[in-house]
Amino acid sequence: MEKEINKVTLPQIAATFFMIGATGFGGGMAIVALVERRCVLEKKWLNHDEFMHGLAFGQILGPFSLNISTFVGYYLRGSVGGILAAASFIAPSFLLVSALSYLYFRFHEVPELKSALLGSNPIVIALIVVAGIGMAKRKAAGLETAAVAAAAFAASALFGVSALTVLILAGCWGLWKGWFAGRVR
Amino acid sequence: MAGILKLCWIFLKIGVIFFGGGYVLIPLLHRIMVDQLHWLTLQEFLDGVALSQLTPGPLAMLATFSGYKAAGFLGALAATVCIFLPCTALMLLISSRYERFRRIEAVNHFLDGILPAVVGLVFAAAFNLGRTSLASTRDFILLGAGFAVLQFTAIAPMAVILGAAVVGLLLHFS
Hints:
The complex is a heterodimer. By secondary structure, chain A is mainly alpha-helical. In chain A, 81% of the residues lie in helices and 0% in strands. Chain A has a domain at 1-107. Chain A is built from seven helices and no strands. In chain A, helix 6 (143-158) runs antiparallel to helix 7. Chain B is mostly helical. Chain B has one domain (2-133). Helix content of chain B is 80%, strand content 0%. Chain B is built from eight helices and no strands. The relative contact order of chain B is 0.11.
């Protein structure tokens, strides 16, 4: 590739993604928006189309926020850049969760903490429901996809089928559908 | 050491199967950590979800929490590295040849099939967790209030969780 030589250094990548990882509260799409603002709009490290491609692939496996960091890092400085961006992004959260885990497992017998956590319990479930609704609007809006979602729900919630089995079956259904559509056309 | 290796293996496997953004981890980890391995109790699992939401990182930080419970700080580190290894490796691979990868239709079809199922699994996770952990009327009121706030306002989940923790504290001690 005959591209303008990238002037972005590894420490710059590390510092940028560490900051995003430390300040990007809101998670998921909020992080993606933050990466876009920092790297595309402010620093112009890559253009918007390239960023969108990275985002599309980031939906395959794992969290978008981490994947988009890996993608931008790779784009700038190859594999080392990708791994560095990913690690820098995760580092602040990792340290925070480790510290909170330490406190939690050490002190969760404290009655005050216990009742505080009982209060947050239902919120966690509400959060999952809200996430589900958001995803449903984007990914299960049609009749057929809604039916797949409903079947997956029933299999997992009512019949105890493992999540992995459900995902593989759904993937095969997608493949079959694609193959069938190809034949009809 | 054997314990850490087993932990790595478990989280690598989980890392290979978390499609579609992260929420699918809730049903997966719930089943594996609580039902199968008994590394976490249901209560600890829910608290772990709450703690992982207090950070900017993805929900997958739940792996850090689970790893910490299983084997201390080293376990937390091993779990975090292993759960993110597969998606980071895949992302590097795709990034290096993304033009070509974009044209493989089978990949798109497979994903088209999987994503709606992820939605179903996420609701199933909420259903399973709710069935076992929501007991009193107060829990359901908090659930409804939390849902309304998270769905209809732009208040960050972190703030809502902290707010609910304060409510929990007041309800039990006043």
